[in-house]
Each structure stands twice: as C-alpha cells, then as structure tokens.
Amino acid sequence: MAFQTEFEFELPKGYIDRDGNLHKKGIMRLATAADEILPMKDPRVQSNPGYLTIILLSRVITKLGELKAIDTKIIENLFTSDLTYLQDLYQRINQMDQPSYRVVCPNCGKEHDLPLDFFIEG
Question: Structural domain boundaries of the chain?
Fold first, then answer.
C-alpha cells in the first residue's frame, strides 16, 4: 500500500467563480510543518487568528475544478458549508495516527493493537 499524500474531494455546494462556473471537485494534499508555521507570521492571522484557516486551506488545496490557482480570495468566497467540509477534511487527513504495538494476550492468546503513549509516567 503506497503512502497517500493527496486526497480527492467534492464540495457539498461548490465554488462559483466570477463567470458563474461551478467548481466542486478538488484535491487536497497533506500539510507540511511550513504550512502550519509560516502563516503565523502573516499580519492577517496576527490581527485575526480565525484567518489561519483561510491561509492553510489556500496552501494545501492544489486543485479545485478548472481553476488555475487557489488563493485566499477563493477560500474566502466559499459557502460556509464548503469551508466546514474542508476544515473537517484537513483535520482527518492530517491527524497523527497514534503508534501502537501488535501484542498477543498471554491469557487468551488473541492479538491486539496496544496504543503507545509516550507521556505516561511509570
């Protein structure tokens, strides 16, 4: 199984460009550390922390319909249901998987995944 870095999506409503064309299908890539850190220096984020979402999505959405490029103006003009959908998608694809061990129970002999927690003191 190959490591997936891009994810196709379809917006619930879609983005309508200035010519009236509807764009619904797109691609979002996994975020990098730079995607999360660099927008923090942006004055728009410093004056309004909520704007971070707009910049993040404009960086990680690589395709939306037939649009040539995705920028903050496009993300700003999405319907709220589409913005919510993209925020959820971003969280799901970028959420860190918790590492685990594959173990065998000494009592029943069944295999289980045992989550690793590096912060447990013991």
Answer: 6-115
Distance CA 27, CA 58 (A): 11
Which residue's entry shows tokens 């709220």? 80
Q: How far from chain centre, in Å, is Cα 85?
A: 10
Q: Determine the angle formed by the axes of helices 51-60 and 80-94, rounding to 10 degrees.
A: 70
Instruction: Name the pTM for this structure.
Output: 0.77
Residue 54 identity (one-letter amino acid): I
63-92 tens-digit pLDDT: 999 999 999 999 999 999 999 999 999 999
Q: Determine contact, residues 102/111, Cβ cutoff 8 Å.
A: yes
From CA 72, how far away is CA 90, in angstroms rounded? 16
For the CA atoms of 76, 63, 56, 86, what is the dihedral angle to 10 degrees?
70
Tell me if 52 sits within 8 A of 45, measured CB to CB.
yes
CA of 1: how far to CAs of 4, 10, 97, in Å?
Answer: 9, 24, 16
Q: How far apart are CA 75 and CA 45, in angstroms?
A: 15
